[in-house]
Structures are given as structure tokens and as C-alpha cells.
Amino acid sequence: MIDSLTSRIFAIFWLTLALVLMQVLMLPKLDSRQMTALLENEYRQGVMLEQHIEADLAADPPNDLFWWRRLFRVIEKWSPPGQRLVFVTSEGRIFGTLQKTEMQIVRNFIGQSDNADHPQKKNYGRLELLGPFSVRDGEDNYQVYLLRMANSPQSDFINLLLDRPLLLLIVTMLISTPLLLWLAWSLAKPARKLKIAADEVAQGNLRQHPELEAGPQEFLATGVSFNQMVSALERMVTAQQRLLSDISHELRTPLTRLQLASALLRRRQGENNELNRIETETQRLDSMINDLLVLSRNQHKNELGREYIRADELWGDVLDDARFEAEQMGKTLDVPYPPGPWPLFGNRSALESAFENVVRNALRYSNTHISVAFAVDNQGITINVDDDGPGVNPEDREQIFRPFYRTDEARDRASGGTGLGLAIVENAITQHKGWVKAGDSPLGGLRLTIWLPLNER
């Protein structure tokens, strides 16, 4: 077993090349139409025919006028069953009961086998010729050939291949193609496993793959390094999550004390602007900690629980709540194309939360008008959420999905957001193999577009 990938490819290349060359060079030698020596019984039969024909001709003196009749009589008398005799005179004249094509075959064979001391045989499709055998007739000398049906005729297709070397090469390459494809597949198999494992890591599934630590040395070493990398990433992520959890726990204790102190101070001194400001910032800090923990949990969660969901059931309640909030804020929310009973396969909570974040974002930054439109095709569902707010500069549109990113426009910290909502949205949509992007809205503000695949497992 060759363990090195380089050596394996080199060996397979030369082995395949050697097999093809051997086939091309050896197959013509296996052609049954090649000249071969007679078998012992065939040679004995020819010698006996020589003797009988010579004796018969000697007993029948030649007639100068119709001398050729003696040859046809001998041919008819001494032709073995299922075979025909052919006489060739010293001048090259051919006598025998032959068709035009058979005459051409005989002439071809005479040109290749004319030595009576070493008679041979050759196939011509379904016919076979044997000879020559020498027969003396006084001062004349004839060469006698036997024409018979071939015992195992070679197929016309094989004849065609052997007669056309280029066609033989093409057929040889076609026959070797499945073997080469199988070899290529077996060589690429470790690379495919590595790609699948890398895709899982890209999706946040940090698990080791023992099957990578097999195969050629190069892939084995790569598989070991890959699993070590995954282990290191998993330790880093676990440490990060533990750190975030510890920080949130430590922050919540003084935050709770701050909220309690604010409540006691309000009871003693009553309402004032300073206390309201402290309470507002305290609530914002609490919300920020919650969003940060949600984002961290979702980014590194290996697998979300998934189920089949209908789009109208998933987002119908969110739209109803958003309409009510818009009315309370003196704004208008239109849904020109509502969601239909389109099938989705995903996590209900994550998808609902992502859509709600986008709609609330539009409500927060719009002036008076918000529009939510749904569309579907064979591939997936597209959701466009538009507002008539200040919008976002083109250079900032890719950055607004980063955690804590703030623009210099009206969408800043004064709006009350934590800067984590769109990061949570992008993470949830990406986990469902979709995408989200920002663009210009026909209403004059920002358009957020979400695309999700249908029935994607």
C-alpha cells in the first residue's frame, strides 16, 4: 500500500499509461486473422489430398484442348465435406468454384502464403483459407488451397477495431475511463471529507472528525492538524462564553443594587430628571447585557432545534403587534404583500426574533411610514422592510451588522438601541442558510432585505 499521495498519483499515472500502451500494442497480435501454422491433423489432411490428387491426375492423361476440365473434375471429387479446393497454376491462374469476393480473398492469401514447404492458414471474416499444398501433374506443378468456414469467426466489430488503430485507441480510452474516474474519486475522497468538515466549522459546528486522520500521509497529517485546530477553537469559544457569563453575572449584581438604590432614592425624594436618567441608562445597560449574551450564545450554538413552520403562522403575530405599536406611535405600517402558507424548516424562536428585530428597527427610526412586503419563488422567501427615516450611508451598510457599530446619522445611541439587534438578526438568518442586506428604500429611508430558503434542512 502506497501511503504517499504523490507516489500514489505517480504510480497510478504510469500504470494506466502502461495498460493503455499494452492494449494498443498487444491486441493486434491477438487478431485471429493473422497468418498461423497448420495444426498437425490439418497438415496430414493436406498431404493425403496431395497424394490422392496426384494419383488421380496421373491416371487421367491431360487433353491439350480441354486440359482444365480435369482440374474441375478433381476439385469436385476430392473436396472434403464443407470445404472447397482451389487450384493455382504456375502462371497464376485460379481454378475453383468461387464468388467474386472469395476470388479476392484467395488472391490476397496467395500473396502471403506461397511456400508449399510451410503451409499456413488465415481467417477472412467467416471464411478460412489453408495452404498451399504442391501437386505435380507431369511437367506442370499446381498449388492447392482449401477454402472452408472458419471454426470461430472473429466479429465484424473486432475486425473494425483492429483495422482502424485510432478507433481502437478511442475504445481503449473509453474502457479505461471508469477506472480512471474511480481512481480520481478515491484520491479526491479525503479532500471532500476535509471540505465538509471545514464547512461545518464555518457554520459554527466545532466538532472533531476522526475520519480525517486516515488515507495518504499528506491528508492524514492535514486531518490531525485540522482536528487540533478545532479543539483549540472549541477551547477558545468555551473560555469566551464562560468569560461572558462570568462578566454578566458580576455586572448584574451591581446593576441590581443600582436599580434598588434608584428605587429607594425615588421613594425618599420623589421624581426628578436625574433619577429618570439613571433609571433609563440602567435599563439600557441591562438590555445590552441580555443582547450580548443572546448574540454570544447564538454565534457558537452548534445546532438549533428545527421544525417545519408556515411563514404566515410564524410572522403573523409579529405583524399584528407591530401594527398596534405603530398606531400608538402615530405611524403607519403597511403590508402590501403578506406572508403566505410557505413552508420553512428552521428554529421558530430565532426566525421570529430576527424578523421582529428588523420590524422594530424600522419602527424606531421611521418618521411616519413603514412597509413590509413578502415575495416567494421556487428557491426561497424574500422580505423587504422599508422605512421613511434618515437611512444609512452606502459605506456604512455592510458595517451596521457588526456588534456595537454606530453610524454618525440619526441612527445613533440616542435612539435607545444597544447596537446588537442587527448583529443578532444576521447571525440567525445565516444559521438558516439565508442572507440579510441593507439598501435604499423607495420610501426614502433604509430597506432591509431578508432571504430565506424554502424547506432547507
TrEMBL record:
Residues 185-238 form the HAMP domain. It is a multi-pass membrane protein. Its EC number is 2.7.13.3. It catalyses: ATP + protein L-histidine = ADP + protein N-phospho-L-histidine. It is an enzyme of class 2 (transferase). Its main location: membrane. It holds the Pfam family HisKA. Residues 246-456 form the Histidine kinase domain. CDD domains: HAMP, HATPase_CpxA-like, HisKA. The keyword Transmembrane helix applies. InterPro entries: CpxA, CpxA-like_HATPase, CpxA_peri, CpxA_peri_sf, HAMP_dom, HATPase_C_sf, HATPase_dom, His_kinase_dom. It is found in: Cell inner membrane. The chain crosses the membrane at residues 6-27, 166-185. This is histidine kinase. It comes from Symbiopectobacterium purcellii. The gene is cpxA.
